[in-house]
Amino acid sequence: xxxxxxxxxxxxxxxxxxxxxxxxxxxxxxxxxxxxxxxxxxxxxxxxxxxxxxxxxxxxxxxxxxxxxxxxxxxxxxxxxxxxxxxxxxxxxxxxxxxxxxxxxxxxxxxxxxxxxxxxxxxxxxxxxxxxxxxxxxxxxxxxxxxxxxxxxxxxxxxxxxxxxxxxxxxxxxxxxxxxxxxxxxxxxxxxxxxxxxxxxxxxxxxxxxxxxxxxxxxxxxxxxxxxxxxxxxxxxxxxxxxxxxxxxxxxxxxxxxxxxxxxxxxxxxxxxxxxxxxxxxxxxxx
Length: 287
Hints:
Blueprint: E1 2-11, E2 17-23, E3 26-31, E4 37-41, E5 46-50, E6 67-76, E7 79-88, E8 93-100, E9 106-110, H1 112-122, E10 127-133, E11 136-141, E12 151-156, E13 169-174, E14 181-191, E15 196-205, E16 216-221, H2 224-227, E17 232-234, E18 237-240, H3 241-244, E19 252-262, E20 265-274, E21 277-286
Parallel strand pairs: 13-17
Antiparallel strand pairs: 1-21, 2-3, 3-4, 4-5, 6-7, 7-8, 8-9, 10-11, 11-12, 12-13, 14-15, 15-16, 16-18, 19-20, 20-21
């Protein structure tokens, strides 16, 4: 496979972008604490800004923040929704936020029970990304130094409705790792036309004296619908973005979504951060 960088745009309307999704010609970007959601069109014009969660509680300690790192598009009662998953520091609960993309109304669900089941299954929970694959919700559990293994978790698309019995299937994510680095999952998107999972990854140095940041990767898993029912998921193509194009150097790739797809090729949006700056790369992957 080949990767080509097509465009880059700096995003001004988001404090610390963590998630990007694309639906019906619009981009949806969410801040990492779910305080802001921004809707943009393909011409990079801001269509709407909405506050998902508020943090004006004086009991919240300075420097503390919520952590919402996973999003995807789901249909609930035939209505497209933006699903946002994470931890709300305001009440110390894990939550699922569903944003109606027709009118931007939202619903909140406490999913602490489901996360407790996840913790019993895989230990440390660090859900970084999500995607829908053939009616199932696929979650990426990102590794780190304390738990150096990535997991794919498969569950029901509307797991919050029946948290006690929702499916939990774990799959080991098999990735060749670079020397002295732990490479962790950060973003996920699914190409239905090609049956590909497209994943962004970030490296974390295991050498405490020479820690590095901004080392990012993009991976493609082919025949994804078959691999989400196996015990291990192997990567077919891996791009070290910093070596692919100098424009990626210093950026941490946080999220990925598919802008368009044709047979054996996809065009992607990559949301990235660099020294307080948010930007979106447009790239193409083809065979």
